[in-house]
Fold this sequence. Notes:
Largest sheet of chain A: 4 strands, antiparallel
Largest interface: A-B, 43 and 42 residues
Structural class of chain B: alpha+beta
Distance between the termini of chain A: 6 Å
Mean pLDDT of chain A: 96
Radius of gyration of chain A: 14 Å
Helix content of chain B: 25-40%
Strand content of chain B: 25-35%
Shape of chain A: elongated
Number of strands of chain A: 6
Strand order of the largest sheet of chain B: 12-13-9-8-1-2-3-7-4-19
Largest sheet of chain B: 10 strands, mixed
Number of strands of chain B: 19
Shape of chain B: globular
Oligomer: heterodimer
Mean pLDDT of chain B: 96
Strand content of chain A: 25-35%
Amino acid sequence: MRRTIRDEARVVRSKNSGPYELTLDVMFRDRAAYDRARAAAVFTPALVARLYGVAEADVLGVTWFEPAAAVKMTLRRRVASGSPGDTDIYGAQQHAPLLDLSWEG
Amino acid sequence: MSGREFRVLSPTAILGYGFPVESFRRGIAKKPDLVAADAGSTDPGPYYLGSGKSFTDRAFVKRDLAFMLREGLACGAVVVVGSAGGSGAAPHLAWCRGILDEIAREEKLSFRLGVIATDVPKDRVKAALRAGRVTPLPFVPPLTEEAVDASTHIVAQAGSEPIIRALDAGCTVVLAGRTYDPACFAALPVRLGFDEGLALHMGKILECGAIAATPGSGADCAFATLHDDRFVLEALNPARKFTRESAAAHTLYEKSDPYRLPGPGGVIDLAGSSFTEIGGGRVEVRGSRHERTAPYRLKLEGARRTGFRSISIAGTRDPVMIAAIGGILEAVRRQVAAMSGGTARGAVHFHVYGRDGVMGPTEPVKETRSHELGIVIESVAPTQEEADTLTSVTRSTLLHYGYPGRIATAGNLAFPFSPSDIRAGEVYEFSVYHLVDVDDPADFPLEVVEVKGGRA
């Protein structure tokens, strides 16, 4: 069955983790949704690289966090917070590319 | 185990964000041993560290701090504020200390105050750099002596040790420069022999006020009771509660790894942590550990001034212009450069809201369907005058630029107000974001002062 992130997750967010990194969190609505997403293997460094236009080497990691039924992905910011060309000092509005994701599960 | 408890009240996520008085007083009624707040962050960008200014408003910092001092001290609690003034360098610390002194006079409060400065002299940073004791954090370029010299302030994010030193000197109020947020909350219980892992994890959650409760809020209080083998979180507002998920999810916030949280001298290891709801909207946490690492490392932060900024904000409501906006902005940029004879210093950046203002080149939506666009012309140049000139000429050129197919020939931009151009002042960038090996993590200047309110 096709699952969309809007159905499966209750939180999809981005934020700086320090001025040089952007961290993305997807918190699933329950343990079952978390397990389905994890099994679908859709959240990978390659996905992050593709969605955010960075090299995989710039993706710091993808970490599954069971206590919060969440997956976290961290990548290098395009420019450091507050540096020329920055569009989002806090990095809190960079989550939209995740919102169209879907997977089989 | 002795069954002893240590009670902590966290009024708010950042000193100056505010909190409901009712929540705060419910916390005071629980007789906390410690009332603590973290006053800062690098989140708001490099300007505040670089310029020495606070990113929180004075009136609200004073409001929040007055509650903490007056009612915290009255119930016998110790009061700790870290990262004073927002960025925790000398001017920020002095600014917050001025507010604290004002409150003490007005409220006639007397206490022993410890003031901890966490600025690091440039010579010490350079010596550490030459000795190979400086390590960049991920994605940060290696530190250079030039970057150290160009930084306006350099601070170390101090751990619990300097706060413990102040507490050892009998201070009941501690005001510290840049500090590891959890240390503001963990220092006193660690000094009393409570487990460092539990104390620091508790601090990591409490430093954000009620953000880790649900519904979360950065302007509401949180309370924790620390025991020898666990800590219990509770909200102080009946509209909020802690859940297993909300408490656990908090370690995701602003961090790249939810299981291992590096900090001064070690790592908070949450791999074995458990979160259990125990009723009444409370959550009990067990199993958090602190793993000390060697060498002891502190994070250094610094910013340098890179120029001055000037902006103009305007909208366009013309569909022909909107459809061709990319080419139009580039043509305007080239025309301005040509008119300056190619000698103008500085750069112009266009922020185009309605197209890609928020995500820039990362924006996946490539087709602009908005009926209007908001354009911010941003110029950054070595002097304010040059930035002003760049913005002014770019603005006037864009206003009257005759692009192909134009039908609205009286003016391309809708300015919301006059003057159309705004001087935005100094521009800073982060210049130091590196770890430094230290021999003595308590080695920061500590000033102990007997504050006697009501006296001149």
